[in-house]
Amino acid sequence: MEKQDVLVRNNVTLHGKGSRALVFAHGFGCDKHMWTDVSTQFEEDYRTILFDHVGAGESDLTAYDSRKYASLAGYAQDLVEIGEALDLSDAVIVGHSVSSMIGALAAIARPQMFSELVMVGPSPRYIDDGDYTGGFTREQIDELLIFLEENHLGWSAALAPQIMGNADRPELGDRLTKSFCATDPEIAREFAGVTFYSDNREDLPKIPVRTLVLQCQQDIIAPEAVGEYVHAKVPHSEYILLDATGHCPNLSAPEEVTRAIRDFLAPSR
Length: 269
Description:
Structural class: alpha/beta
Shape: globular
Largest sheet: 7 strands, mixed
Strand order of the largest sheet: 1-3-2-4-5-6-7
Radius of gyration: 17 Å
Helix content: 40-55%
Number of helices: 11
Number of strands: 7
Distance between the termini: 37 Å
Order of helices and strands: HEEHEHEHEHHHHEHEHH
């Protein structure tokens, strides 16, 4: 694809004035605006890049292909193409939730392009498997996806506040609910299936770049055991258990997330 076509396809926006780029990748049911509270805090020192996965936000919905996006590899390919369109090198991927693994796949494919990775609430597999704790049984995931297929708006209204956590701040749950409701129902159903049935555990030891794992407390989507597992399997990783609760600290605790990323990227390290 032509460079401009890639940027339009993924609704890419550029900000900041630094020489090094931070690429912020949003999670399921979200769009690039979910990173605004964090990304703006880096604009004095970094070039910040935000984008929408195809099917989300203001991306080009006509570019959505069920075959391409039947696995996370299709989304990782888009991330690499964005990097190529912008001539990125030595960039940092900051991925939330499922985009942690999308970012990991992109870093594995192009370690010179993406030389550091920040994983916020990552999970390589959401379904329990033997001694592995993913947080859900297969039956629970099946039921969640059936509910999503039958009642997209009801699913969004019921699940988004639980995913967000922070019940004492209902405006956060409302914000996530609106984002979920704004997604195309058919694409959301397919992306949910790809997300929740994925198993990328074997990819973790292949990640060749410095990695920061940011884990929240009381996260019903990616419990602490999952974050600890990711840290144990990624060779060059650091792990921080945030004070933040819920699954979306980029919304609920942007200052804490910003501080952790900034410390990780500090030149002295």
